[in-house]
Specification:
about 160 residues; seven-stranded mixed β-sheet
Length: about 160
């Protein structure tokens, strides 16, 4: 009788297991072993000084470069203070963020934890809020977001940061 009851419980538990929600697996890019940190204060939309920084590695030899101190290569990045905590979702002022062309996105942030989205990134220059553009990715890591950024289209172009409210 005990064997029959145990077998019956196993069958019931197995048949109901398909309806149980499966736990979401963390996105690997949320690990601090994967992402790099963007925390240079001149990256903040509040900064209006030097306008020559860029998020661009390996520029052509004949161009002067002033690569951002917190930029390394294309990859996953997390914004941290004093740079801000997210990429702005409206155009920042032209010439702020320590660069000439200021990076922002018109996309919304992913709402669910570990959700990833492809987003456009625009760079504001002169009277055109999307003078140059590129693609990026953003992942919701719960209490913060990480972005996959590529090299900007040239120098004096940079991804800006703003503090999320």
């Amino acid at each position: 009788m005990k064997i029959f009851v145990l077998l019956w419980l196993f069958v019931i538990a197995s048949s109901q297991g398909d309806n149980c929600p499966k736990p979401e697996l963390p996105a690997p890019e949320c690990s601090d072993l994967v992402y790099r940190v963007l925390n240079d204060q001149t990256r903040s939309v509040k900064y209006n000084g030097n306008r020559h920084k860029c998020d661009y590695t390996n520029p052509p030899m004949n161009l002067p470069t002033n690569v951002s101190p917190d930029w390394q290569t294309p990859g996953w990045y997390r914004f941290e203070e004093p740079a801000g905590t997210i990429l702005p979702m409206s155009p920042p002022c032209q010439g702020c963020c320590g660069t000439a062309q200021t990076g922002w996105t018109m996309a919304t942030l992913p709402a669910r934890q570990y959700e990833r989205k492809d987003i456009p990134v625009c760079f504001h220059w002169r009277n055109n809020v999307c003078f140059t553009r590129t693609q990026a990715k953003v992942t919701n890591c719960g209490s913060y977001f990480v972005y996959y950024f590529v090299n900007t289209p040239g120098c004096n172009i940079r991804y800006c940061g703003i503090t999320q409210k």
